[in-house]
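[step 3/7] fold_predict: job queued, chain A
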Amino acid sequence: MRILLDHCVDIRLKNHLPGHEVLHTKELGWEDLTNGKLLSAAEDGQFAVFLTVDKNLRFQQNIAKRKLAVVTLVPLFTVIEQLVVLIPAVLELFEAGVLDGKSYVIPDEKS
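[step 4/7] structure written:
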């Protein structure tokens, strides 16, 4: 699966998503794109999933009209150690299948 990590996601998280093609916005020169333009670029780049920690994105954008899924990680803090803890749930979601135009939230049980 082709996955795009948002600006606000630690780039090292890509090392914890084995078997997937994972790119970060910085690697593509997209770090200055705002949410709507970034999602459009991700669609144009044929990404299946946009992975973010921006809890407001799903309320600010019309995800239902998008040709990708948005997965929001909700750790207590956005440090790599707390993001990695959520990866098993992310991989389980990917295995079950994500749908275009859907927004998924992976909360930390402590948050």
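[step 5/7] annotate
The longest helix spans residues 35-44.
The chain is about 30% helix and 20% strand.
exit 0
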